[in-house]
Amino acid sequence: MTTQAREGAPAVKSMEKIVSLCRRRGFLFQSSEIYGGLNGFWDYGPMGVELKRNIKEAWWYDMVTSHNELVAPPGAPAPYQMVGVDTTIIMHPQVWKVSGHYDLFHDMMVDCRETKRRYRYDQVVGRWVEYQGRRVFVTVDGEGPTVEQDLLQRALKFFNLRSKQADQLHWDGPVQPLSSVEDRSLVLGPDAKEPGTLTEPREFNLMFKTYVGALAGEENAAFLRPETAQGIFVNFKNVLDSTRVKIPFGIAQVGKSFRNEITPRHFTFRSREFEQMEIEFFCHPEQSQAWYQYWRNRRFAWYVSLGLASDRLRLREHGPEELSHYSTGTADIEYAFPFLPPGKFGELEGIAHRGDFDLRSHMEGKLDPSTRPLQVELGPDGKPRWRGSGKDLSYRDETTGERYVPHVVEPSAGADRAALAFLCEAYDEDQAPDDKGKMQSRTVMRFHPRLAPIKVAVFPLVKKEGMVEIARDIYAQLKKHTTCFYDEKGAVGRRYRRQDEVGTPFCITVDGQTLDDRTVTIRDRDTLQQQRVPIDQCWDVIQQRLRSPEQ
Ligand code: ATP
């Protein structure tokens, strides 16, 4: 993206400013805000819904619609096919038993007996501090950019000291996780007044439970899906039988997922209801490493092509200790969100080599034996009850006759985290001339044109006869192609600013010259250059510039 309008260093990305802009300009609102909001749930406003739709559509278009199955894309080991599905949020409960989510999908939490607050065990961090012979481990919930400062405030408050007395505190050792402390009676909980109120860690399953039908008994219990992936696995055979796909091929799905996160936080980053964009890519076991390499590189390049700067974006390969027992490779695409401490990154997408674990589990009902012993239910005959589907989910290669259970590479992305990263990346402040040519500071969202909620705005320079009619006519024509906004109120400079704030890449202005020669100016949000173009060429010019390298 061009940033010629900027003078000096790029603006520091402040989460506070980004959140405020999101609210002010209709990107994101708290869910049920008039009732005080609901923690972990977010609504997308008129601008946000367009941004998120553009992200999901770009993903679907680039991964599925425009995929050419006749040639191997650069870096791919072979040509491959891509199809999509849209499966239900509530599935047969057995799916979650077999996938391992019922028994294993949990976080460790600790409760505070004093405040009744609940925390994720792995997110509470603290530091030893001593004052006048009393030593406590002060804690805060989550490691933000101001963690040291937050701990200091906690300690001052606890010991009843003023800020200027801070040097009387004796700190001991670095910031460390709660799990490093054995004696809980010395731990001051993140919101507690006295030490010793945090419970021992307990497991907390992240799946939302509901009941299907009129009976609320356990036999009617069901779960809101915590990932879209299982809907793909259980339809593997249906897709094979109903289409002519052959391995290697991928099945894509975009849809809502739900996780009862213990501590939702960081705006939409950790929500309880969110959308995922997932691909399960099925391939021959011997080819799977090559496909894994392909997908991790391809997915990383996708974010870059849509404007995420590579110094804030990274691809991190998991170490052996982080891998699930069935995975021979997992990489995360991560972004340095402004709410994280410097040098820390948050996950946007995980690309995992999952072997044949999922399909085999749905065939045979195996749980993850390395993590936990099988919780086998016995049937009436005293033998373990069959928990897989019992269906044959293997694949037969028609050419070679070979039968095998395919291996899977799974690129699993979050649409909301992507939207948040694109919002953070787009936010900028710079100087731009106002109506009188005087430089004024402006806030500008430098979205990639493909993702911008509004692609083009149309203004008559002044509300003068002739100009208004032409501008309305251009607006009506462009509306047939793309999201277009019409504005005739106030000084044109202010109208430009309002569009800059929501990231509209192009503004068309009808001015005096238009009346003479039927040309208009197209103003570029980033370079501030104005290009004069005949009215009937406007759409062609804009269309060219809306494209990204993936298209
Ligand atoms: P985390 O470690 O941050 O909880 P995860 O490793 O559990 O994430 P996955 O199960 O791999 O996440 O889910 C795939 C993607 O779904 C993530 O990369 C993320 O973009 C998105 N995602 C997962 N949990 C949430 C959430 N609570 N809120 C928003 N997006 C989420």
Describe the structure.
The protein is of the alpha+beta class and 551 residues long. The chain has three domains: 318 residues, Bira Bifunctional Protein, Domain 2 (BirA Bifunctional Protein, domain 2, 2-Layer Sandwich), CATH 3.30.930.10; 96 residues, no CATH class; 94 residues, Anticodon-binding domain (Rossmann fold, 3-Layer(aba) Sandwich), CATH 3.40.50. It has a seven-stranded mixed beta sheet with strand order 3-13-14-20-17-16-15. Helix 2 packs across helix 10. The two termini are 16 Å apart. The N terminus is likely disordered. The protein binds adenosine-5'-triphosphate. Adenosine-5'-triphosphate binds next to strand 14, strand 17, strand 20 and helix 10.
State the strand order across the main sheet.
Answer: 3-13-14-20-17-16-15
| Apparent shape | globular
State which percent range the strand residues make up: 25-35%
CATH architecture of the largest domain: 2-Layer Sandwich
Q: Could you state the CATH homologous superfamily of the largest domain?
A: Bira Bifunctional Protein, Domain 2
What are the bound molecules? adenosine-5'-triphosphate
Q: Which bin fits the share of residues in helices?
A: 25-40%
